[in-house]
Write a structure and sequence with these properties.
Blueprint (H helix, E strand, L loop, with lengths): L2 H24 L4 H18 L7 E6 L26 H11 L2 E5 L2 H11 L3 E6 L1 H11 L4 E5 L14 H14 L2
Parallel strand pairs: 1-2, 1-3, 3-4
Helix pairs in contact: 1-2, 2-5, 3-6, 4-5
Length: 178
């Protein structure tokens, strides 16, 4: 781990992030842009570091599940029927193929609980700007690569994610081991 990158991430997440969120309280139209900036800046810093992650967690939001699905995946993503109506099936297969842990969370409290239980060395997290930026701050110093979800039906319902971006983030951590 490069000490200067660790220090820069601390400055970004513990100083710049709160300052931008304060500014976002006054400029509400810019808040999401500030959060996206923090996620991108964090990703850039993480990818400049050398991370030896043996245990990687793929952390997903519950809103990525099809809202009409009968099975609630609140705590156990493996209850998924793998019908293909949402990206959960593909994400489970990706995690299984790459040998990483996968979990789904209904919010920040559950996400923090999952991180505490799994104790990963690195995290690839999928979420909206707000949840992703605050989650990255909450899990510091664990290296997190954030992938913003896509919201074709608005926030918190039937969201989706670019599978290639998730795979690239997971493979980046995996390739750091060698």
């Amino acid at each position: 781990m490069k000490v200067w990158i660790h220090f820069l991430r601390a400055v970004v997440l513990k100083i710049l992030y709160p300052v931008l969120m304060l500014a976002g309280a006054f400029m509400k139209s810019k808040r999401a842009e500030f959060q996206t900036y923090i996620v991108k800046l964090n990703n850039s810093l993480v990818m400049q570091d050398s991370v030896k992650a043996e245990k990687i967690l793929l952390l997903l939001p519950h809103c990525i599940q099809n809202s009409k699905c009968d099975v609630r995946l609140t705590f156990d993503v493996f209850k998924c029927k793998r019908c293909g109506k949402c990206k959960i099936k593909d994400l489970i297969e990706l995690a299984e193929n790459l040998g990483v842990s996968i979990a789904i969370a209904t919010g920040g409290t559950i996400a923090r609980k999952v991180v505490k239980e799994v104790r990963p060395d690195a995290i690839v997290a999928v979420a909206c700007e707000r949840d992703l930026s605050s989650g990255i701050v909450d899990t510091y110093p664990i290296p997190v690569l954030g992938v913003l979800n896509e919201r074709p039906y608005g926030p918190c319902i039937d969201t989706t994610v670019n599978l290639d971006k998730v795979q690239d983030a997971l493979k980046w951590f995996i390739n750091q081991k060698t």
